Amino acid sequence: MKTAKILMVFILTLAALPAFSQNRTTAESVRGYFASVNNRILAMAKDFPEDRYDYKLKPEMRTFGAVIVHIASGNVYAAKAGRGEKVNWDELDPKDYRTKAQVVALMEKSISDADAALKNVPDQSFAKSVEPWVGVIEHSAEHYGLLVAYYRANGLVPPASRSSQ
């Protein structure tokens, strides 16, 4: 538990740095990081070949598509919590999202719902707490790294790593 608290302080410090260095408020930073990681993940969901959506790095791991569904579960949680609902993290079942189109649509909806909730959070409330947003950002960023590994293992270059030529 102590390690988790230290990690959270570290993450909050990192999240706050742009607010200090670029004259951004904490609310602007949280909203910016949330959008950034979700946009990168959505780009991957749209870009990754459909015939490889069932790819796993190891047999005991989630498929590429299931990782996207898992990330969307975090956004669903954040949207509900951001609206003030009493909520637990309810994992969405990847079996309910069998095609790339279904996974992409889920990710788009989860981002839209979470963004709407995040935009309605008053800026001053971030002085009290940045949760659930920073926790979900950290979770999504962790899985973004995993998705990069899925790309590389398949001989592909993630969208954010491609040159803009």
Mean pLDDT: 90
**SSE order in H/E notation?**
HHHHH
Helices and strands: which structural class? Answer: mainly alpha
Rounded Rg: 16 Å
Shape: globular
Q: Which stretches are poorly predicted, pLDDT < 50 over at least 5 residues?
A: none
- What share of residues are in beta strands? under 5%
- Reported by name, the CATH topology is Four Helix Bundle (Hemerythrin (Met), subunit A)
The figure for the number of domains is: 1
- Report, as a whole number of angstroms, the end-to-end distance: 46 Å
Counting DSSP H or I runs of 4 or more residues, the number of helices is 5
| Percent helix | 55-70%
Largest sheet: none
CATH architectural name:
Up-down Bundle
- CATH C-level class is Mainly Alpha
CATH superfamily: dinb family like domain
Kindly state the number of beta strands.
0
What's the topology here?
Layout: H1 2-21, H2 26-47, H3 64-82, H4 100-119, H5 133-153
What report would you give on this structure?
The chain is an all-alpha fold and 165 residues long. The protein has a single domain, classed as Four Helix Bundle (Hemerythrin (Met), subunit A). Helices cover 62% and strands 0% of the residues. The protein has helices at residues 2-21, 26-47, 64-82, 100-119, 133-153.
Key phrases:
single chain, 165 residues, Four Helix Bundle (Hemerythrin (Met), subunit A), 62% helix, 0% strand, globular
